[in-house]
Design brief:
Length: about 180
């Protein structure tokens, strides 16, 4: 019996799609307690928000960083850049009320991470984004990217960075209270 080439092509595509989706199904079927252990199953970005003034929240984040013996290595002025380039491009949509990215490093945590895998340099410097949206500038968002790697090997050193990021954001959330 000969299979119609169109049907055969559809079957092959379906099999390929199933194979490609198997890792996603693994994430969907694990219990929530197991998901916490699987970095690849977690949301890639953590976003929290507080009620407050942007500048005050920014300073509180800097203070939380300094209290851990760390300093800001650079600041990306995202809002300023978008405003400036928007005028040049004749694009006037207001994306943020304000937005900055705080970049920093921890010598100890970074050294541990990079000794384990020099390719983890891709995660440096660490960043926390602080921003407001134009429709509610009293709601200040704090976000950071999770450190997602191709496998779970050396996950412990990446978790140390995530704990630092989480702790810094949680300090600010604790000070202002989570926005509801």
């Amino acid at each position: 019996m000969m299979i119609n080439p169109v049907i055969k092509n559809r079957i092959v595509r379906a099999v390929i799609i199933v194979i490609l989706c198997l890792p996603l199904l693994r994430c969907a079927t694990v219990r929530s307690s197991e998901k916490a252990q699987l970095g690849r199953c977690r949301e890639p970005v953590v976003i929290k928000s507080v009620r407050g003034n942007f500048d005050d929240v920014w300073e509180s984040l800097k203070m939380a960083l300094n209290e851990r013996g760390l300093v800001v290595s650079s600041v990306s002025h995202v809002w300023d850049m978008l405003e400036r380039t928007g005028r040049v491009l004749n694009r006037t949509k207001r994306i943020y009320g304000q937005a900055k990215v705080m970049e920093f490093c921890s010598a100890v945590i970074s050294r541990n991470m990079l000794e384990r895998n020099p390719h983890f340099i891709s995660f440096c410097p660490y960043q926390i984004m602080v921003y407001t949206l134009p429709d509610n500038e009293n709601r200040v968002y704090l976000s950071y990217r999770r450190l997602i790697w191709k496998d779970e090997k050396d996950r412990d050193v990446l978790d140390a960075v995530e704990r630092l990021l989480e702790g810094l954001v949680d300090d600010v959330v604790q000070e202002y209270g989570e926005y509801r």
